[in-house]
Specification:
about 290 residues, alpha+beta, Jelly Rolls, six-stranded antiparallel beta sheet, globular, binds 2-oxoglutaric acid
Length: about 290
């Protein structure tokens, strides 16, 4: 299996790079790795993703006008390969994650001429004290399948907001509401540009890794083409999480498109969380408490 401690890289130039990524993650809340995806895998992902997007009905699009599509990666087995893509697992190992777990993932595609994504952060365990410490509980791995710029909806973020309160935390405490998803009020502060925001334009096949507590959003897509990202969620330090958090993560449900053989392979790689204790799950809470200062 790939999370073998003996595989840890000891090439010194690489080690410096890895230290830098870890430092960026802890202090800024994210880092970018260019060209992580191999060309032919990228083409396969593009093809399968386009087929899934073409098959989506219009109601699904309206319900997620701000986000874009929200299609689970369990809709096609190709994405299971992405979950355990060796270069991605190496990225995890290099930031010190010995036995990470993966919990979910989505294809998020902004159609042509679509509005901005609302400002939000994705951490749901703010009732757990570890949420107010430097180490990330959960990471996003965002793979953009096309080149992105502010014109076609590139990612934008508030550096350091994973550990430091920003006024956006109070303006939009929990952004995951039906109203914001449907853009009922396009003038809502959740969609607006912020003085401190940083654009993260990338090239197709690049990877953006970030702390789930980081405030982020995406520009509107004013181009004539889709802008697609695949977001995967990992717990890099799963074994250090409180029992309540591990209980809340539980074990993923197994929708039928990923066959038992696929799940078995992922299980053998140790990447699927499986909580077997009796602790009450930490309640779902997406609003940071006053301890975030
Ligand atoms: O669409 C994007 O660029 C960002 C997606 C996002 O915010 C997320 O996956 O949490």
């Amino acid at each position: 299996m790939s999370f073998n401690c003996s595989n840890i890289v000891n090439d010194h130039s690489k080690t410096d790079n890895n230290k830098e990524h870890y430092r960026e993650l802890i202090s800024n809340g994210y880092f970018v790795i260019s060209k992580l995806l191999d060309r032919s895998f990228l083409e396969d992902l593009k093809y399968v993703t386009s087929c899934l997007l073409d098959a989506q009905d219009e109601d699904a699009g309206r319900a997620q006008l701000s986000t874009g599509s929200m299609i689970s990666v369990t809709e096609n087995t190709l994405f299971a390969e992405l979950v355990v893509y060796p270069r991605a697992l190496e990225v995890l190992r290099n930031i010190g994650s010995i036995c990470p777990r993966w919990s979910s993932g989505y294809i998020i595609s902004k159609p042509p001429e679509s509005p901005a994504l609302f400002w939000h952060q994705d951490w749901w365990g703010w009732s757990d004290l570890s949420s107010y410490t430097p180490l990330p509980q959960q990471l996003f791995f965002m793979y953009y399948l096309v080149d992105t710029t502010p014109k076609n909806g590139c990612l934008r973020l508030l550096q350091g907001s994973h550990r430091k309160r920003h006024e956006m935390h109070d303006l939009v405490p929990d952004a995951h509401t039906d109203k914001l998803r449907r853009v009922v009020d396009p003038n809502h502060s959740a969609y607006q540009a912020i003085k401190d925001e940083i654009d993260v334009p990338v090239q197709a096949g690049d990877l953006v890794v970030g702390d789930s507590r980081l405030l982020h959003s995406a520009h509107s897509n004013i181009s004539g083409s889709r802008r697609t990202v695949i977001t995967l969620w990992y717990q890099p330090f799963y074994d250090l999480l409180s029992e309540g958090l591990r209980s809340a993560i539980g074990s993923p449900s197994r929708p039928p498109k990923w066959t038992p053989e696929v799940w078995e392979k992922l299980n053998l790689l140790g990447i699927i969380p499986a909580y077997e204790g009796n602790e009450e799950p930490t309640p779902w809470n997406r609003t940071p408490g006053r301890d975030l200062q």
